[in-house]
Amino acid sequence: VKVTVPKTAIAEASELRITVSPSVASQVLDALEYLAGYPYGCVEQTMSRFLPTVVVARSLQKLNLPKSRVNDELPEMVNAGLQRLYNFQHHDGGWGWWEADRSNPYLTAYVVYGLAKAKEADFAVEPNVLQRGVQALQMLIEKSRHAGAKDWHFGSALDARAYMVFALSEAGTYDKKALGELYEERKEITAYSQAMLAL
After folding, report:
1. Which is it for the CA torsion 33, 39, 40, 42, positive or negative?
2. Rounded to whole angstroms, how far apart are CA atoms 3 and 134?
3. How far apart are CA 108 and CA 93, in angstroms?
4. 3-state secondary structure of 38
5. CA distances from 179 to 34, 74, 97, 127, 197 (A)
6. Tens-digit pLDDT profile for residues 126-173
């Protein structure tokens, strides 16, 4: 392999590192070291650490890889994330950025999706927490029907609804009415939301 070093590179400050991995799985396991040190903060940061850990745990189950130090650490990492998410849940069952703000449609959907994936990976998810999150999503979906073109921080109320309906379906709850409405208005939502609708 020919490597062209830019003329503007400072030779004394430059380094070439080549890493060889026997499989994609080993690269994923190496990335968990980074996740283990990822900072906990708001709900979004907690999910950014929690969800990839759950996905890796599920992948390790499916691949039936031999036990390793990482396998032993995964349950602890997932349980720490679960406890933080439980503490962030609002009285209405939803999640915002923090403990004391308003429930946000996207963050509530993100957490419900993450909890559903954790349950799918055989982690002990508190059923009441997940159920309250599902109920909060159902209320937020209803609220989005009356929001019109109101900005929901990440796009339109319709786009928010598509993500919420997707998260509900991942949690095993299907809102046929909302799916039908979104399908009728599919030309009004972003390509990302159309993908959520298709899923």
Report:
1. negative
2. 52
3. 9
4. coil
5. 38, 35, 27, 25, 7
6. 999 999 999 999 999 888 877 654 445 556 778 888 999 999 999 999
